[in-house]
Specification:
By secondary structure, the chain is mainly α. It has helices spanning 3-13, 18-34, 39-47, 51-78, 83-176. It is rod-shaped and about 140 Å long.
Length: 177
């Protein structure tokens, strides 16, 4: 996954320039598609997508089955059942133990990936907030410049008006002389 690139594209998506923001979102959509994802998948990943809970449930079920199999194995050994039954129970215990380890490993990997996604989400959220704040600051500066420009324009118009009156006065004096 290209988390840094995704973060930059999300920051660009907050641009006040609609074309730039749209281009950033389209680029992000293409980037997600290269990873066989879309925006819904991204949102699910950022929320954890429920996969962690599913793995924890599977792990708990496997543990329960393992405890039951071990209990049955002990009962079989204590009750002097046939060697074949004890052997089958041992195989079942080994199989469930291996499945338990595999699920635990997958859960650990999913937990690490979820943590990475949460960190990336936090970084993207921070970048987005900063971009929004910068955009607001720029809008304030633009408004201040517009007010200043309107003031200067008013002064220039006043000077033009005064110059016009002065020219008329000079011309009228020149005509009298």
């Amino acid at each position: 996954m290209h988390i840094d690139r995704m973060s930059k594209l999300l920051a660009l998506a907050s641009s006040s320039n609609d074309q730039e923001a749209l281009a950033a979102l389209r680029s992000l959509k293409r980037l997600l598609a290269t990873n066989e994802m879309d925006f819904v998948d991204l949102a699910n990943r950022l929320r954890g997508g429920g996969r962690e809970e599913e793995l924890e449930h599977d792990l708990e079920v496997t543990r329960r089955q393992l405890r039951q199999a071990r209990g049955a194995l002990r009962s079989a050994q204590a009750g002097s059942q046939s060697d074949q039954t004890a052997c089958e129970l041992r195989q079942q215990v080994r199989k469930l133990t291996a499945e338990n380890r595999a699920l635990k490993g997958e859960l650990d990997l999913q937990t690490e990936e979820l943590q990475e996604w949460r960190i990336a989400h936090s970084a993207m959220d921070t970048t987005l907030r900063q971009s929004s704040q910068e955009r607001l600051q720029l809008r304030c500066k633009l408004r201040q410049k517009q007010v200043e420009m309107d003031r200067v324009l008013g002064e220039v118009r006043g000077m033009i008006n005064l110059t016009s009156k002065l020219r008329s006065f000079v011309e009228s004096k020149a005509t009298m002389a």
